[in-house]
Amino acid sequence: MRLENKIAVVTGGSRGIGQAVSELFAKEGATVIIVDLLPQGQDVADGINSSGGKAEFHSVSVTDKSAIENLFAEINEKHGKLDILINNAGITRDRTLEKMSEDEWDAVIDVNLKGVFLCTQAAAPYMKANKYGRIVSAASNVGLRGNFGQTNYAATKAGVIAMSKTWTMELGKHGITANAIAPGFTMTDMVDKIPKEHFAAIEASIPLRTVAQPIDIAYGYLYLASDEARFVSGICLTIDGGTSR
């Protein structure tokens, strides 16, 4: 198993890509700590445990600095280490530039950018102490090319890529890698909001002529979290069917 005996935190692990990551990591031998405000995170953890894996669920907001710090201290005390951090939690509040409210801007920045910062800041000391760490954060191909109506979302995802490159330089000497993943259209709740009449056009715009399934993205996380990627750091792995070619 590729993650045997690893302790992996997955934020936003209750559904979509995060759920796929949580379940895949558990199958690969990791103890998965799901961090999410959605109560179905407990169902995901229960499903993993009933299938012979190991998982915990903690209802904590990634935007709550003290709660995140306390949780990571608890994880380290209980398990003796924190090997992998998957910064997956994210939200959208789409609106064109002139119509976007300050609240919509702030909400997305708070979760998608500040939340990634707070979780990584809290995890880094434990990884440094163990001289080992894998940090993989959710960017998006929107962070590479922009997208109509997503000023806030695109800004956060571009920021995640830049932060990952910075952490590569700051944490590399401690045996810690930092990477980002840029998914394209993936069958999650976010994509479900797209009107059906536009969906065919979206699929036609993708060279592979289909949108991704969450497991397609989860396999990218698995690679970057595994020891197979021990010499891979500071990259943004794009998984979008060739859209960002």
TrEMBL record:
SUPFAM superfamilies: NAD(P)-binding Rossmann-fold domains (SSF51735). One of its GO terms (molecular function) is glucose 1-dehydrogenase [NAD(P)+] activity. Its EC number is 1.1.1.47. Keywords: Oxidoreductase. Residues 6-190 form the Ketoreductase domain. InterPro entries: KR_dom (IPR057326), NAD(P)-bd_dom_sf (IPR036291), SDR (IPR050259), SDR_fam (IPR002347). The keyword Protease does not apply. It is an enzyme of class 1 (oxidoreductase). Belongs to the short-chain dehydrogenases/reductases (SDR) family. NCBIfam families: PRK07231.1, PRK12826.1-2. PANTHER family: 3-OXOACYL-(ACYL-CARRIER-PROTEIN) REDUCTASE, 3-OXOACYL-[ACYL-CARRIER-PROTEIN] REDUCTASE FABG. This is Glucose 1-dehydrogenase. It comes from Maribacter algarum. The lineage of its organism: Bacteria, Pseudomonadati, Bacteroidota, Flavobacteriia, Flavobacteriales.
